[in-house]
Amino acid sequence: MDLYYRRNKGYQKSVLTNNTINNSRKKAKKTQMVEIIFLMVVVMYILILLLPIVSLSSFAGINKIVKLLGNEEAISSIKLGLKTSSYSLILTFLFGTCTVFFITNIKNKVILNIIDIIIQIPIVIPPATAGIGLLLAFGRNGLIGKFLSSFGISIVFTPIAVVIAQFFICSAFYIQVLRAAVDNIPYEIYEASYVFGASRFQTITKIILPMEKRAVISGLLLSWVRAMGEFGTTIMFAGNIVGKTRTVPLQIYTFLQSDITMAAALATILYVLSIILMIAVKFFLRTEEYS
């Protein structure tokens, strides 16, 4: 009887062990299948991201891209885009940084939520809607435009309008990136700085901003790329005037009306410019990390 009991118990253990092994194998197969599905989704996503640049460059061809570098209108649009986006980036840094550190001091959640909604408006509204709004605000009969017109100042359909349009759209991206970084800074760092006699301005400029240099550069990069690619707000508010308000996206749109190959070539150059800038910033950030 005792021998039978031992054999039966050993058999049960063997069955349990086999079941455990089978269950582990099934789980491993399921995990492997999930990983394969994830891999397929990621590969498809990367292909979707790379497909436009590959299609553009192959359609335009190297000869057309080289030829485009001698086109006065294309070069003018690139120069104008770099110039206006640089100005808008300066405004984004100044206004955006001040806004972020002002928000961090707000304790009232209702006021904070209202300011959050206002800041995110440029991200959620259609660019054309933003352009019409700016046009009505800065036009001759607008709230601000009417006042400026009395001094002989006109904003609409000028390079200043391009800067304002780019700043209006891209500033929110910088604010979001920098705010996410600043919110994670322990308040003890502020207190330690105050104990050593630093003012709030000195704490922000000499301690916090250098600490969050990566976030500042990343946010500005994101804003710069968005400003360079801005189309809807610019064409509504600043127009499409050669050498004055025609940035790269507007020049691509203009080429598209007559020569799609030229449009593809200029779009490829814009892609390459953005990628080069991103690589340069990534290299800079890595250098700073290991220095």
From TrEMBL:
GO terms for cellular component: plasma membrane. InterPro entries: MetI-like, MetI-like_sf, NifC_ABC_porter, Sulph_transpt2. The keyword Glycoprotein does not apply. Residues 78-281 form the ABC transmembrane type-1 domain. It is a multi-pass membrane protein. SUPFAM superfamilies: MetI-like. The keyword Electron transport does not apply. The complex is composed of two ATP-binding proteins (CysA), two transmembrane proteins (CysT and CysW) and a solute-binding protein (CysP). Part of the ABC transporter complex CysAWTP (TC 3.A.1.6.1) involved in sulfate/thiosulfate import. Probably responsible for the translocation of the substrate across the membrane. Belongs to the binding-protein-dependent transport system permease family. This is Molybdate transport system permease protein. The lineage of its organism: Bacteria, Bacillati, Bacillota, Clostridia, Eubacteriales.
